[in-house]
Specification:
- The protein is mainly beta.
- It has five helices and 50 strands.
- The radius of gyration is 41 Å and the shape is globular.
Amino acid sequence: MPYVIVKTGKEDKGLVNKSRMMIAIGHKKFKSKKNNNMLFVVCNILKIDLTIAFLIAIMILIFCPLVSAVENPDNENLAKIKVDDVNKDSFQEVHRTQGKVVLIYNEDALDEDDMELNNKNDIIPVQGDAVVENKKNGNSASIEADSMDYDNVRDVYHARGKVSMFYSGAALSADDVEFDNKNNVATAQGSAFLKMGEDTLQGDKIVVNTENKTGVAYKASAFYARNNFHVKGDKIEKTGENTYFIKQPSATTCDGDNPDWQITGSEMKVTIEGYGVMKDARFLAKCLPIFYSPILPFPAKTKRQSGLLLPYLAYSRDKDGIDIEVPYFWAISPQMDATFYQRYIEKRGFKEGAEFRYYLGEKSFGTFYGDYIEDTRHVTETTDMATSRNWQEMHKRWSYYFNHQTNFDSQFYLRTDLKKASDKWYFKDFSSHNYYLDNYAQTGEDNFKNVSFKGDQSLRYQESTIRVYKGWSNFNLTGMINSTDDFAAVNNDQTLQKYPEIVLTGIKQPFLNTPVYYEFTGTYDYLYRGEGQKGHYVDFLPTVSAPFNISRYVKIIPQFAFKETFWSRDDNQTDSKNKTADRTVFNASVSLSSQLSRIFNVNVNGWEKVRHEIRPEIIYSYIPDVNMDNVPDYYVPASSPFPMPGSNPFATVFGNALTEQNAVAWSFTNTLTAKVKDDHGAYSYLEFLRLRLFQIYDIHEANKSMEGVTQERRPFSDLGIEFDLTPHKYFSFMARNVYDVYDGWKQTNYDLNVKDWRGDTMTIGYRYTLDSIEEINLYLKAVITENIDGTFISKHDLFNSRTIENTVGIFYHKQCWGMGLDLTETDDDVRFMFKISLAGLINMGNK
């Protein structure tokens, strides 16, 4: 309910700039805490008519020191007035004099009961400020000001000096505000400023209807925070809920009074979530006109909108020629969209592509993409049997990708990840730019940027899957179809496919109430290929273990497993007697591990403590010899309980099929973890150093007979080394190496990352594999100036003595636009790529 609250008393001249009046108005009954208010006492006793009461009230106000509108030297007398049932005509006049407020009231005085405040929550407390609070038709508005008048006849408030008005989540401030309470219209002048959420409007004068949110601003500028959009105009008028009219408009996403670019015109009409039209539109770079159009239509949507996306512009000297791609985004609905890729490659032809995305809620979403080109480029390559080609005619080339997921519940989902290319050279020929590179993601955090492979010349195979998963508390069931395209194979018909694979898994769990644990895996495959052995394959692998501790430092886990395998071939490469068979493989192992740690107090640069932890482990494994007579080539006899990282767990240390094992493996892990306290007092943990060493000793190899054998015994496997160092957020180093204790280094892989607070970055990577790979990769980014970045990328194949890529790039960027150029040289091409970004203009489509 609206109120009138009046602060009375003498003005303290020493606090003139701090003192503010507070008034709330709109009710029709007086109530006062003061029982000695002589005006009400006299009116109550005399019961005279309104005219006589009016005259007596004036006399009393002049002569009686106890009435409510007198001087108060203490400036603390507060008359709290609640008005309910009296007509607005009860307020005949409001007079403001130096240090005083005088109310002229022309109704009967209230009785003693009405003098009580029945609801103290309806009274706004006032101490030295002027506040008007109006609640009309369910809408609330309040005004604060240094001084304020109320015209009861017109029902208008007039506030002056540091005025602030609040209504419906908006805040209006100015030097002078007049509020028409009857029509809900506020007129603000003098530094008028309106804030609605993060958006703002300012001008010489703002007139706004607080009920229907329409209004007009003169000599105004508006700011829309979501897109950092600045709009200026001689007149900005909101004509409806979502419609605007702007006279002499200018628009830009650049900050400041002198924007780097802007669009201007004579007038503009806009419908939010619809379209707008600007007349006499001009595009200006600084003050230089670049483009003119008598009428310029444009989309005006704050949500996803249809439109052109940022184009791709490049030139390839040897392979492609001019290369231009212009994507168009179509916002079909809030749950669906499509992007059409129109690409012209001078030396190849037109490439058409389309992406369709859908979101049917958190439980179902997906992406489909496909492209097609009639490639006219002639290519002759002689490398090896698998990758050589001689193309002298047009080739129809295509690719597609389909990713879908439906979550029936947290333990039941369907996931599809299908991808296919027309030929094994597709990703090599289009490695400079393609859809798959743009949407490659190593993590699945983005449901719509989730390509799991890097589509460039390094891609060796492509795998498609359809998977259905159902989980329970201790078990899960997975059904899958898996298809693989091997780009290194001469004939992909020889590649083994799984049509389908079904896996039932029992998670490790205690057996009844005993200290014994069990787990199992059961698998069915139909292994298919066009050429070679194929057929049904079933195996079942239960495992039993009984972990126990010796003191608090040693843990022992004895384990026993057996694998029962059955197969049935349906190819024509063998007779019927050898098509069906089975094998049983046993594995007994025991592991011994420990964990030792110590905590050190350091108190250096926010590091309060450092924990040093050592985890040694020894595993012994025994697998008896497996009969390998008349087995299919897809039979896997056994798996090692301690495989080498990066190696095949079904192979021996020499790479042969694992048909028996009598070996001991050891590993030794060191970690250093810091407890870090940040500037806000919050704690976090940083594992800044990790070193792990591991190796296998083959007892069979150490005891083998040397009769008739020329090669020496080599019981020790390669030594694996993993090292990670991350002492600071600006520095990291990683090494993954394999050392052959008999012949030296077999693999060495290093990655170094260094950056600083400015954004300067250096990344160096080195890859070496004996007799196959040696390459070095370098990435540099330098912040040359505040607005200029430089990049350098260098990739060298040292093994084949060739340059994979050298790229030099420079990018000039301002707050609202950027422009750059990349020059890339490979062993068979030179490519130029031009990049431009105008925030909010070129990237009109918003995915």
